[in-house]
Request: fold
Amino acid sequence: MIDYLVSVLTEGSIFAIMALGLNIIWGWSGDFDLAFYGYVALGAYMTLVLTIGPATSPTTYILGLSLPFPIAVAIAVISSMLLALIVGAIALRHLRGIYFSIVTLGAVYVLYTFAGQFVPLFNGYNGLSGLFDPMGDFFNLDFTSYPFFYLGLCVVVLCVVLFLVTRLSGSRFGLALRSLREDERAAAAFGRGIYVMKLKAYVIGAGIGGLGGALFAGYLSAFNPSAWSPVETIVLYAAILVGGRGSNRGVVLGVAVMVMGLQEATRYLPEIANQPSFAPAFRLILTGVILVLFIRFRPQGLLPERRLRDKDPAGTGGTAVAAGNAVAGATLDTGAA
Amino acid sequence: MTALLEVQDLHKHFGGVQAVTACSFTAAEGQITGLIGPNGAGKSTAIDLISGFKVPDTGTVRFEGKEVQGKAPHVVSRMGLIRTFQSPREWPGLSVLENLILACFEPRRERFWRSLWGPSRAEKERANEQLIHARAVLDEFGLLHLRNERAGNLSGGQKRLLEFGRIRMAEPRLVILDEPMGGVNPVLGERMASAVLGFVKAGTSVVIVEHNLPFIERVTDQVVVMAEGRVIAEAPFDQLRGNQAVVDAYLGEMPTYDDADA
Reply:
């Protein structure tokens, strides 16, 4: 039971990291990116090829290094950001809305097909495996205590990511990004360089996605095209929408509800008439129903994005706020979460 | 009196439609310049060309002596030329206060690393000053009690005022107002007229596109009349009555400001 709980929490933390990345792209700057899971997958693939050592026949893959896990993760994140820079530079130049989504969907399918068909890259459909208990030897952990360590690692990384994105969210950078989401032409009229700002947000979000993918690789110890598909992005979107688009705490809650909660609640459904595909199908239907209900009745999500609030009741003086909140700047700079 | 904005021989066509033809005019520093003309005269296209939202086929736009035609909108905006749009373009999901604060473009504070690192002491003070300034501006436009409200929830007239508030916050050298009086009642119109005059006092010169002639008569120092893509007259408003081309193209029977009030 405890093993089960640990694995659910580990997976939940990893998905929360990914969702926080996607939230920057969709929640803040407002681009419905369908390539996101590609950056997650690239992060996972790169972590594997950088840690599992050279390929032995019949497997083939590039690199095949035996780098320490943290270094591999760092390189994996940078790879995801580079790929996002290329895709984003093309897709964000002129395309918006559904046209942007279609191009990113195309991009992720290119990556998916490439990873599957082009064997020398990541060993094709057989994928990569062999990353067992990263950093376990370094800390002298056996296989019973290792899952606790990895859970701790994922939770710590999640907390760091959450801290950083919360900081960004309430900053001028985060606020300015939201102005792009709300009205791009007005944002340009007030001096914001739309393309560069959107590209920045896109690359940062993809980097966080790559980080989630790298941790996912360490958790699964293997990765291949049957372990992911571009559609997985939708699960992350569902979590963001239910939790509260643009709100970091909301996104974490959304992952708890939609990824951990829903997934696990439907895991033990009785099999109906020997239909093994019933449970996964039912889960998808349930996800769809919940999404529709939220879009209809609570589009802002469970924990809506917070707006900057002027807490001075009269709103006339400056000193009152300064006294009340140490520095009013603090109200401004941490207002949104 | 120096020309802040100098438009010279602008041309722009869309397919077979010649939207702007040999458009030339100037807007002087410290003045309010009206831009009027019938629908389809090319006024909106002209301001799109000036503000960088469209690229002219030929011609030059000089702002403070520097050529800006073909530059990106945000580049033109950073030089101190801000435009508004025919329908108010607030950031609907942000609060009224956020709308005002974001009107000030601050490249340093908006940098990614700067934002990640956190604001310095001076920047916190700056943010505080900005908040106080924003409150004063909101108070001036009667929006103070709505400052924490979602901007998208405001009424049409309030959104117009919010737009003006953003201009006050941004303090550009020149603002181009695109039909600010569209759908605005006379009482609010009075408030907006004084706001436009207030821009000039605060050091922002104004170019204003408007169909409301009493309003134009009241606030402008100089009026540019466009018809069929070209400028047909450039004179103070009271001299336009005697200009037959202007009367034929646009004015017809001339209403006065008193008529509109009655």
